[in-house]
Amino acid sequence: MTCPHCQSTVTKERSQKTTPGYRTFRCLCCQRVFNERSRTPFNFLEYPTDIVLLVVFWRLR
Ligand SMILES: [Zn+2]
What are φ and ψ of residue 25, in 5° steps? Predict the structure, then answer.
């Protein structure tokens, strides 16, 4: 997992997950914590990414 803050690939997965259940990571380079969806266009959504993509797919059909 690449750090969205410093682009380092030296990261460690944490045991805690975010409220929606995303895996969280700590960057060993800048010591910041991020999750799978940090800095993505989906981060502001309250629904899981796969559900959002399904709805978008259905709308486009
Ligand atoms: Zn970093």
Answer: -130, 155
> Can you tell me the distance from the alpha carbon of 5 to that of 47, in angstroms, rounded to the nearest whole number?
23
Cα-to-centroid distance, 55 and ligand 1 (Å): 33
pLDDT tens for the 61 residues of the chain, in order: 899 999 999 999 999 998 888 899 999 999 999 998 887 877 777 777 888 889 999 999 8
Q: How far is the CA of 48 from the centre of ligand 1 (A)?
A: 24
Contact 52, 45 (CB under 8 A): yes
One-letter identity of residue 11: T
